[in-house]
Specification:
Mean pLDDT of chain B: 89
Number of helices of chain A: 0
Number of helices of chain B: 0
Shape of chain A: globular
Low-confidence stretches of chain A: none
Oligomer: heterodimer
Number of strands of chain A: 12
Low-confidence stretches of chain B: none
Mean pLDDT of chain A: 91
Structural class of chain A: mainly beta
Distance between the termini of chain B: 37 Å
Structural class of chain B: mainly beta
Strand content of chain A: over 45%
Radius of gyration of chain A: 13 Å
Strand content of chain B: over 45%
Radius of gyration of chain B: 13 Å
Largest sheet of chain A: 6 strands, mixed
């Protein structure tokens, strides 16, 4: 069975500082990996995804993530956060032969001025 | 492209009544749709998977008679919460997948906040 762990429940970061959100997955083969962002009361917006190839993935809004097979991780980073980045972030994993996503518990990001 | 519209965004209903939530793919044909439930400050839990023209597949622990899912066309799936009770209050989100979808089938609707009073 696949599973996702986001170790950090809540992260507070200063505007302009860098941000890294951790994600670890458990899956028997190479998974499809995703990061989504959710603003309060809204649906999910895809930030980026990894299927294969280059392990450093660029996404929207200046986010990037790196797939590290040896560590079963897919951490999300942003060099300089903006106040608008305050939201809930979800890491998700899906198998290549199915479309059922498993989501992590989410990390709430608060941005302070 | 790949837009999913979910309606209504908010609904308040009385206990014992039924509520229907619609999920539409606006610019692609959705062969599969997924329904998720999200409790406050928690992650998304997959409730069921529906394929156009066939019965939905429910996840373990989800009452199929309470959460009726219909996927009668390639652009519309509905979730009906029957005989709603306060414990059904939650945020419900759908996602849709087409045969050719650059997001690998994970285009999400904007969610529906259901409050049962």
């Amino acid at each position: 069975a696949q599973s996702v762990t986001q170790p950090d429940i809540h992260i507070t970061v200063s505007e302009g500082a860098s941000l890294e959100l951790r994600c670890n997955y458990s899956y028997g083969a190479t998974p499809y990996l995703f990061w989504y962002v959710q603003s309060p009361g809204q649906g999910l917006q895809l930030l980026l995804k990894y299927f294969s190839g280059d392990t450093l993935v660029q996404g929207i809004k200046g986010f990037e993530a790196e797939f590290k097979r040896s560590q079963s991780s897919f951490n999300l980073r942003k060099p300089s956060v903006h106040w608008s980045d305050a939201a809930e972030y979800f890491c998700a994993v899906g198998p290549s032969n199915d479309y059922k996503l498993s989501f992590g518990a989410g990390t709430t990001v608060t941005v302070r001025a | 492209g790949a837009v999913v519209s979910q309606h209504p965004s908010r609904v308040i209903c009385k206990s014992g009544t039924s509520v229907k939530i619609e999920c539409r793919s606006l610019d692609f044909q959705a062969t599969t749709m997924f329904w998720y439930r999200q409790f406050p400050k928690q992650s998304l839990m997959l409730m069921a998977t529906s394929n156009e023209g066939s019965k939905a597949t429910y996840e373990q622990g989800v009452e199929k008679d309470k959460f009726l899912i219909n996927h009668a066309s390639l652009t519309l799936s509905t979730l009906t919460v029957t005989s709603a009770h306060p414990e059904d209050s939650s945020f419900y989100i759908c996602s849709a997948r087409g045969q050719v979808d650059p997001n690998y089938g994970y285009t999400f609707g904007s969610g529906t906040r259901l409050t049962v009073v």
